Amino acid sequence: CRVAVVDGDGQLLSGVGHAGLLPLRKVRFGIAPIVSETGSGGELSAKFRYMSDAPVLALVTGAAGGIGSATVRAFLAAGFAVAGLDVTERVAVAPADGDYRGLVADVRDVTALRDAVASLDRPIAHLVTCAGISLPAETADAGRVLPDAGVFRDTVELNLTSHYLTLSAVWPALRDGTGNRSVGFASSVNALQSFGLVGYSAAKAGLIGLVRALVVPLGAAGVRVNAVAPGTVPTDNTRREWAHVPGHFDEMAALVPTGRLGTPGDIAAAFLALARDLTHVSGQTLVVDGGQSLHR
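Given the sequence above, the corresponding structure tokens read:
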């Protein structure tokens, strides 16, 4: 007999095989192992089946960074299972309680991305791409001069091309899924205003164009796509980027009509709302900057 008995939370209550009941076991990402046809003594085979009531899985890139880790926490708190992906092994450490798995991969390496996605034990329903950063070679002069061609190319590869590579790796699972599915790209107010950083701003503007171009082909499979454009958000990474410019964040805060800079949690809340709540919104860019981009 090949039976697995689970409750609504994905707990394996018992399995009935040749040797009777199996011990209690937590089911990761909500998939239940089934008893091998030839197994004995309660051993489990490597075969699995998906459970319809399992937590929905979201993949978040840049998950070890400030905005990425906040997004992971927001989705976990909302009851999602989350796979966090980053180039650093710090991503293996769960940032909060919940059904979490860390994946180490470079978002510029499509083969590594496909391998990471293939390692997951259930389909991805939501993709949020937070990976990206302005390169030191561009921020060194406060972003006020033209970067050389190599810096521009590297910046666009990290902050635009990598988002499409991630989508291409995830697309088969998104396309073949059912129900509410979405893609969210992290753009920036740099795409909307003249804040310098030529390569970074061009890449972030490219993401807004990419969203609009993807609406029809993704929508044909029932998948929505949007971007979130954060204003200036102090994180460990951005503080390091701008440490050589005294008063940078005070200068940026003075441009925000609401009187404060954004937090990683502000951006995470926008990604969560676009994935979970705003289920008829696609092709849009949600600006989360307290009005910063309109006050120059």
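Confidence is low (pLDDT under 50) at residues 1-52. Try to locate this feature in the token string yourself.
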